[in-house]
Amino acid sequence: MAGRFEPRAQRLNRTTVRAGDTRLPRPARAPRSARAHAAPARTRTWTPTAPFDLGLVVGPLRRGPADPTFRVTNGTVWRATRTPEGPATLRLTRSSTGIEAAAWGEGADWLLDRLPHLLGDTDDPGAFTPRHRLVADSHRRRPGLRLLRTGLVMESLIPSVLEQKVTTDEAYRAWRILVRKYGEQAPGPDGMPDLYVMPEPATWRMIPSWDWHRAGVDNKRAQTILRAVRVAPRLEEAVALDPQAARKRLELVPGIGPWTSAETVQRTHGAPDEVTVGDLHLPGIVGYALAGERDADDARMLELLEPYRGQRHRAARYILLTGRTPPRRTPKMPKTDIGKL
C-alpha cells in the first residue's frame, strides 16, 4: 500500500499548487456574523471505568490559549472539527454520571460514535510501569491521564507542520490567523464560544502567498502543508494503520519528518510509544528529570527512556507533567515574525 503511495508523493514536487499563485480565486467564506445553526444537539453519556481527567486527556488537541477550534469555559470543553461527514462541534462536560457529550453539525454522529476512542477508552494505562521515582510520583498524582485517539489526521498534521522550527507562540499565532480567516464558523447553539472549523483541503490550497506571509509562515512550511493537503485522503487512511506504518506514510510527503509524524500519530492513534525526536526542549527535559543531565540529545533521551519501551510517549507525558526542567543557560529561541519583514 505504501509502495503505491510513494511515487504519488514524490510527484508532488512537480505538481503542487504554488502558494501565492494569483490565478487561484480566494475561497468564499460565509459572513462572520452567520453561524451554521444545526439540528438540535445529539447527546451521549460516556462513563469512565477508572480515574479520568478530562483536561489531561483532551489537552493535547488545544493549540494555544486562543485556539479558534478549542475552548474551555467553566470546566466545559468545546471542540470544533472537520469530520469525514462534515463540520461538527463537540461539547464535553463532566457530571456525576460520567462525561456528558453533545454534538452539532453534519459530523455530530461521527464524533459521538467515536467518543470512547477520543476519550482514551481504548488506551491501556495499566501497561505502564514507572521505573523512576520522579515518574512514579507523577503517575500517582495524575491517575486520570489517558491517551486520546481522534482518528483525524489533517487536523493534527497541519498545526504540527506550523510548529516546525519556530516558537510555540509563533505557531499558535499562525494557526489562529489562518483558521479564523479561511475556516468556517462552527455549528452549534446560540451562546456557544466563537469557534471555527479548520479549512478543508481545497481551501488550504487556495491561500495566497501574502496571507501565509502575514501569518508568519515561511515558504517551506507552507509548501509542506500544500503537498499534504493534495494527498489528504491518502493521509487520512493512515488511521487504519499501526502507528509506525502511519508515520512512514506521512513521511512520504516531503517536509514531513520524524518530529511531525510523531506529534501527529500521538493524537490520531493514541500511540503510547511514539516519542517525539528532534524537539528543541524534550531531550533536555527528559535528561534532566531522569539523570540530572542538562545537555541530553535525542540519542541520550532514547537511551534513558529505553526501560519504558512500548510506553515511551506516555513516560514523556508524565515527565512533562512534573514541571521539572533544566535551568536555562541560553537565551530563549528568538521569534522571527516574517509577516513584518
From TrEMBL:
<dbReference type="GO" id="GO:0006285">
    <property type="term" value="P:base-excision repair, AP site formation"/>
</dbReference>
<dbReference type="GO" id="GO:0032993">
    <property type="term" value="C:protein-DNA complex"/>
</dbReference>
<protein>
    <submittedName>
        <fullName>3-methyladenine DNA glycosylase/8-oxoguanine DNA glycosylase</fullName>
    </submittedName>
</protein>
<feature type="compositionally biased region" description="Low complexity">
    <location>
        <begin position="25"/>
        <end position="44"/>
    </location>
</feature>
<dbReference type="GO" id="GO:0043916">
    <property type="term" value="F:DNA-7-methylguanine glycosylase activity"/>
</dbReference>
<keyword id="KW-0227">DNA damage</keyword>
<dbReference type="GO" id="GO:0006307">
    <property type="term" value="P:DNA alkylation repair"/>
</dbReference>
<dbReference type="GO" id="GO:0008725">
    <property type="term" value="F:DNA-3-methyladenine glycosylase activity"/>
</dbReference>
<feature type="region of interest" description="Disordered">
    <location>
        <begin position="1"/>
        <end position="44"/>
    </location>
</feature>
<dbReference type="InterPro" id="IPR051912">
    <property type="entry name" value="Alkylbase_DNA_Glycosylase/TA"/>
</dbReference>
<dbReference type="InterPro" id="IPR011257">
    <property type="entry name" value="DNA_glycosylase"/>
</dbReference>
<dbReference type="GO" id="GO:0005737">
    <property type="term" value="C:cytoplasm"/>
</dbReference>
<dbReference type="GO" id="GO:0032131">
    <property type="term" value="F:alkylated DNA binding"/>
</dbReference>
<keyword id="KW-0234">DNA repair</keyword>
